Amino acid sequence: MLSAAEARRLWALEPDARHLNHGAFGGCPISLLEVQAAWRARMERQPARFFINELGGLLRAAAVTLGEFVHVAPERLVFLDNATTATNAVIASTPLRPGDQLLTTSHVYNAVRQTLRHHAARAGAEIIEAPIGMPLTGPDAVVAAVASRIGPRTRLIVLDHVASPSAAILPIAPIIAAARAAGVPVLVDGAHAPGLIDLDLDALGATWYTGNCHKWLCSPKGAAFLAVAPDAPWEVHPTVLSHAYGQGFVAEFDKTGTRDVSAWLTVPDAIALHAALGGAALRQRNTALAWDAGRVIAAELGTGLGAPAAMFAAMATIRLPLPDGLAADWPMAARIRDLIWDAARIEIPVMALGGALWLRLSAQIYNDAADYAGVAEAARAAVAAA
Asked: What are the two backbone dihedrals, phi and then psi, of residue 349, each rounded to the nearest 5 degrees?
């Protein structure tokens, strides 16, 4: 496996900054940007032939490679720009009636929370957020909190696979099993999961599963997927309806209008690069680095981590020590993040969750232990300055 110094040369990241936030928007290696440029050049050489005659087959070929990586049949897999687009499509397609309940957790991604709010309000439905706490004590408490709230009015369950604010891997398999036993469909927002953790979508059994390829698989921005189970209880339509409306899942999502599809077509190359950089061994290496760095920073801050080791992959959350009177809210989180950057050129997000603020660090192949030295000092100084 490449050293961090060798790996950094594969990316275009600023050399004088420490990038500890791969989980937010990913980071695309230069070689994959070149592949994307080649697809764009091919598209522009003959746009009509490309979109009318070639694109359908190209997308289905890319879906075969991606389907093999995440273990789902390609005819049940479509490409979208991001996981938020996919969750919007599923939630908007859900037939809601007054009194129905949409069940999620207190760690739900805020964009998804707002989507649920919008469609629940339109239908007169209710949103239930199962409180799962922070710090998390273990997977059993999460399963109990969600499963105990499945009831006769539960219309859809929306679960994060890797929760954005806490970085925790949620125990979705037993929750999906409980939901299936109750006859309730499940949408899993796996935005962070591809390339971060091992995925076997058919084994998980979610009704719908979405994930981003531009985060931990490092594809160009704007590449995500939505997978559907064979027994989905209703049809899901894209948020943009076009000529293929009524022609089925794949046709509708493959034809939503003219757009730059180069990021989607680069996904097979991203999967190949992920394997070349180590695949499962890379994921294990990044997980170990994130956990070790998180423990050191938490010890230096005199606080603790947001979850047990088994619930983290290549990200970890560390509680910030806050003086009395300092708000533990999102505006304060954004201010502290900016102060850390301005003072130390360390890009690391700060999350507001559970009445506290949390550093969320990431570990990618271009990071090593030296990148995390001084993070606690910079965070403490930012809190003092806030």
From this structure: -80, 155
pLDDT value at residue 131: 97
DSSP state letter for 220: P
Thinking of the domain 31-273, which architecture would CATH place it in?
A: 3-Layer(aba) Sandwich (3.40)
CA–CA separation, 334 and 357 (whole Å): 10
CA distance 284 to 281: 5
The pLDDT assigned to 79 comes to 98
Helix (H, G, I), strand (E, B) or coil at 105: strand
Q: What is the CA radius of gyration of the chain?
A: 21
Helix (H), strand (E) counts: the chain = 16, 12
Pairing of strands 154-160, 350-353: unpaired
Sequence-ordered list of residues with C-beta below 8 angstroms from that of 51, at least 6 positions apart, any chain: 43, 258
Q: Kindly give the pairing relationship between strand 356-362 and strand 350-353.
A: antiparallel
Query: What 3-state class would DSSP assign to 186?
Result: strand
Domain map of the chain by residue range?
A: 31-273, 278-385
Task: State the DSSP code for 279.
Answer: T
Q: What b/e readout covers 29-48, taking b as 16+ CB neighbours within 10 angstroms? A: beebbebbeebeeebeeeee
Is the domain spanning 278-385 CATH 3.90.1150.10? The answer is yes
The burial of 323, by beta-carbon neighbours within 10 Å (0-12 exposed, 13-18 middle, 19 or more buried), is given as exposed
Task: Give just the sign of the alpha carbon dihedral 127, 132, 135, 136.
Answer: negative
Q: What is the pLDDT of residues 67-87, one digit of tens each?
A: 999 999 999 999 999 999 999
CA 151 to the chain's CA centroid: 27
- Between the alpha carbon of residue 322 and those of residues 136, 165, 237, 357, the distances in Å are 19, 18, 45, 8
Say what the pTM is.
0.97
Q: What pLDDT, in 10s, does the model give residues 146-200?
A: 999 999 999 999 999 999 999 999 999 999 999 999 999 999 999 999 999 999 9
